[in-house]
Specification:
This protein is mainly alpha-helical. The chain contains twelve helices and no strands. Helices cover about 60% and strands about 0% of the residues. The protein is globular, with a radius of gyration of 18 Å.
Length: about 220
Amino acid sequence: MSISLLDVYDRLLAHYGPQSWWPGDSPLEIMIGAVLTQNTSWKNVEKAIINLKEEGLLDLFRLHETPVEELAEIIRPAGYYRLKAKRLQNLMRYVVDVHSGDLEAMFACSVDSLREDLLALNGIGPETADAILLYAGNLPSFVVDTYTSRVLKRHGWIEQEADYHQIQDQFVSQLPDDVALFNEYHALLVRVGNGHCRKTPKCETCPLFDLLPSGGIEEGF
C-alpha cells in the first residue's frame, strides 16, 4: 500500500477525535458486552446490560451461578439470547474454574496463552477474544471487525481473500505495540465504517475518500 496504516490512523484521529472506547464501567462489563454485541447493535446490548445491572448480575460469581434459562430472559434484548446466555456462562465458568474468579490474575497471563484459552471456549471467536484482551484486559491485541476488513479491502490495502489473522497481522506489523493505539484505532475504524463504509458505501464525505483506488471500490465488501 502506498500509505501507511499509521498515516491512516492519524487522518482518522484528526477528523473524528478520540472515541473513548470501549463503553463499560468495569472489565467484567466490557467482557459481557463483547459477547452480547455479537450479531447485534450496541443499542440492544445496552438494554441487556441495563437489565443485568437491575438484577445485580454485574458480579462475576452471581452471573456464574445464574441458571442459563433465567439469564437468557434477562439478556433477551441482545438477540440470540439463549445462545449468548450459554456463551456468557462458558466465559464465566472459565474465569471461575481456571482463575478462581480473579480477573486481575487472568489478565496477568501472557497475551498468547490467554488468547488461546479464550478461543477454546465455545462461542468465543477471534474478534470477541481480542476485544476482551484489548478493552477489558488492557492487553495489546488488535481487534478486527467487519468494518476493518471492509475499509482495507475497498481501498486495496490488502488482498480481497485476506482472513481475520492476515488483516490483524497487517496492522500489528505496521504499528507500534501500543495498547492505547490499538484501542483508539479500532474505535476510529468502527466510526468510519458505521458512518461511511457500510454495505452501501457513502464515500464522498469519508475522510479516506481520496485514498480509494482510481477505479473505485470493488463490490461485495
